[in-house]
């Protein structure tokens, strides 16, 4: 059965024309008109995923996150390999603070996007959004953990103080010894909770994991014959617009001499996995 089900050839042709009309409206930023056109196409052929994902994109432009989520989920039901639908669904989920599920959708979109067209601008865009989403997820969980840790610390301090006051009231032992023991216990308690909070402190990315030009974390690292690692897109732009030379060493450099730095790429991923993306992104 065709994606349009039992629709006639005329209906299929009409639906496709409506899609093209919707695309034309979208390019002119007439998102309401585009939504109407895609909706009519969906009415004629409800099982064509691109109609749903195109309409979802209009909802994204209008910040209509509820309808965006609904259309993306329908598009994914019809085509689970639609990386654009997974990407937009991830954005919608992040808006409702469903960070964990949002990250999963963006990761799925990135995998599918790389498989479809690794050099597409969409892949870089998805990577950027995924990086932000990972940080938002970490920040949300970190804030929750910090609040719980603070409450637990207050409870422990209160219990320790009550125990100390009880000992003082009973006048057992020497007062100075009791105060000194209390101070050491309080110090130890603070040390334990300070250590527990370390994992929720944002980290600076090590220099060797950053591009020498942008100083931002590397995403697609390439290495020059001189052993300097750059972000691929950044060094290619330098070679095209500035000159055919290595910005750090000054030696002659051509695009054909660049090679993927797989070791650094793995190191970047290991850093992100280990630290839960606990660093700030611009």
From TrEMBL:
InterPro entries: CHIP_RING-Ubox (IPR045202), TPR-like_helical_dom_sf (IPR011990), TPR_rpt (IPR019734), Ubox_domain (IPR003613), Znf_RING/FYVE/PHD (IPR013083)
Residue span, U-box domain: 204-278
Biological classification of the source: Eukaryota, Viridiplantae, Streptophyta, Embryophyta, Tracheophyta
PROSITE patterns referenced in this protein's UniProt entry, alphabetically: TPR, U_BOX
Pathway: Protein modification; protein ubiquitination
Keyword Transferase tagged: yes
Classification via Pfam families: TPR_8 (PF13181), U-box (PF04564)
Organism: Cuscuta australis
Single Gene Ontology MF annotation: ubiquitin protein ligase activity
A GO cellular component entry from the record: cytoplasm
Domain of life: Eukaryota
TPR repeat start and end residues: 15-48
Top-level EC class as recorded in UniProt: transferase
Its EC number(s): 2.3.2.27
Protein name in UniProt: E3 ubiquitin-protein ligase CHIP
Gene Ontology BP terms: cellular response to misfolded protein; positive regulation of proteolysis; proteasome-mediated ubiquitin-dependent protein catabolic process; protein polyubiquitination; protein quality control for misfolded or incompletely synthesized proteins
Catalytic activity: S-ubiquitinyl-[E2 ubiquitin-conjugating enzyme]-L-cysteine + [acceptor protein]-L-lysine = [E2 ubiquitin-conjugating enzyme]-L-cysteine + N(6)-ubiquitinyl-[acceptor protein]-L-lysine
Keywords: Repeat, TPR repeat, Transferase, Ubl conjugation pathway
